[in-house]
Amino acid sequence: MRQQLAHVLEQVLRRNPGEQEFHQAVVEVFDSLEPVLRKNPQYVDAAVLERLCEPERQLIFRVPWVDDAGTVHTNRGFRVEYNSALGPYKGGLRFHPSVYLGIVKFLGFEQVFKNALTGMPIGGGKGGSDFDPRGRSQGEVMRFCQSFMTELYRHLGEHTDVPAGDIGVGGREIGYLFGQYKRITNRYESGVLTGKGLTWGGSLVRTEATGYGTVLFAERMLQTRGTSFDGRRVVVSGSGNVAQYAIQKAQQLGGHVVACSDSTGYVLDERGIDLDLLQQTREVERLPVSIYAERRGATFVPGRRVWEVGAQVALPCATQNELDEDSAAALVRSGVIAVAEGANMPTTPSAVALLRDAGVLFGPGKAANAGGVATSALEMQQNASRDSWSFEYTEERLAGIMHSIHDRCLATADEYEAPGNYVVGANIAGFTKVADAMLALGVV
Ligand code: GLU
Question: How far is the CA of 241 from the centre of ligand 1 (A)?
């Protein structure tokens, strides 16, 4: 079985040269799969692994647009429709200058297993562009989104492929994308995108869902050790959508959140982060966290990673590979009990190993941050029935989903003799769900 995994991995590396993040995501899943393949030779016979590593469809397209000064720009757009064994392709769009095919593929690959873990009928996909929304006017962002959708619309549909947001894509961008889709297709097809505004088909709790879900997952992990967020020192990285609502839920559960960050540095605010001020600064005015620190009279530390301040609970909610071995060692020295990933693959493999060896509870992103996409599936349900649910009911559904993902990870880890290992549990539970569906659907 080890040979089989090595063979498929060799093929993945050869076929996808230079896509480091994608390779990392595949290796991380493969590391858990040997006992599964031993127990289920039918997966090997049907080449499930080979098929799973090859996206069903990969789209790359030109996105031309004109800025406010009349200059023409040419960005690159992507959509990787990764796997549709469980439902329509589902996953966000990322607008960030670092986006290239390898990033989209890593995110799509993760999304397949994450979506399977939610228990909802959704396949996996991901997309985006190397467009940098920072410093762009409203009009420029709108024209970019319209151009992006003018190409992508032909591949989407509520039963085909349903994008949402990710880094650089929030409610504003989803609005422009939906408007253009509606105009081109002449259909008010609410279920074609999620993360919509509340007056035009969006779901309550979707905005909060990723951050809330991460904290609910972490709370459940803490409960296994007979403890909770109450009175704990919490550090969050990032200050975007996921970070903001992770901070809010952690505070609601009694956590003391003392730091957050952006790409310029971090804020240390020993009185506890003031979420209203953070949202006004980051979300409404789109200013860096240094301005929050200035307004709040807190400390801003430029160019350094937030983990050095130490915490009992650490929530990486920014981006991939932002928590490395040195950061993990600093967290362990400060007495960290739990780390839950709000972002996708924020912890490097060596940092994960270090945390696990130190006995720290570690919730991998494909389980811990699945609340966002799970609530997107709830938004699709509401769209399909032309209904809208209350905040309380939707949040209850989200909490139920997070608890069941947590419990399934633990039960699967136990079944495969890796008690308490959420990485193994998430990878195996996600994989077997998709693999069984792929077997049932034949060689397609
Ligand atoms: N981008 C989010 C994720 O990484 C959400 C995707 C969605 O709601 O479709 O899961």
Answer: 12
User: From the CA of 176, how far away is ligand 1's center (Å)?
Assistant: 18
What band does 1 get if pLDDT is binned at 50, 70 and 90? Answer: confident
Secondary structure of the chain in HEC code, one letter for each residue: CHHHHHHHHHHHHHHCCCCHHHHHHHHHHHHHHHHHHHHCHHHHHCCHHHHHHCCCEEEEEEEEEECCCCCEEEEEEEEEEEECCCCCEEEEEEECCCCCHHHHHHHHHHHHHHHHHHCCCCCEEEEEECCCCCCCCHHHHHHHHHHHHHHHHHHCECCCEEEECECCECHHHHHHHHHHHHHHHCCCCHHHCCCCCHHHCCCCCHHHHHHHHHHHHHHHHHHHCCCCCCCCEEEEECCCHHHHHHHHHHHHCCCEEEEEEECCEEEECCCCCCHHHHHHHHHHCCCCHHHHHHHHCCEEEECCCHHHHCCCEEEECCCCCCECHHHHHHHHHCCCCEEECCCCCCECHHHHHHHHHCCCEEECHHHHCCHHHHHHHHHHHHHHCCCCCCHHHHHHHHHHHHHHHHHHHHHHHHHCCCCCCHHHHHHHHHHHHHHHHHHHCCCC
* Residue 356 confidence (pLDDT): 97
pLDDT in tens, 342-357: 999 999 999 999 999 9
29 lines ligand 1 (CB under 6 A): no
Domains in the chain, CATH or no CATH each: 1-54 (no CATH), 55-188 (3.40.50.10860), 209-368 (3.40.50.720)
Residue to mutate, 113, 174, 373, ligand 1, most ligand atoms under 8 Å from C-beta: 373
Q: Could you list the active site residues?
A: 126
What digits encode the pLDDT tens for the residues 177-194? 999 999 999 999 999 999
Q: What is the pLDDT of residues 230-252, one digit of tens each?
A: 999 999 999 999 999 999 999 99
Mean confidence (pLDDT) of the chain:
98
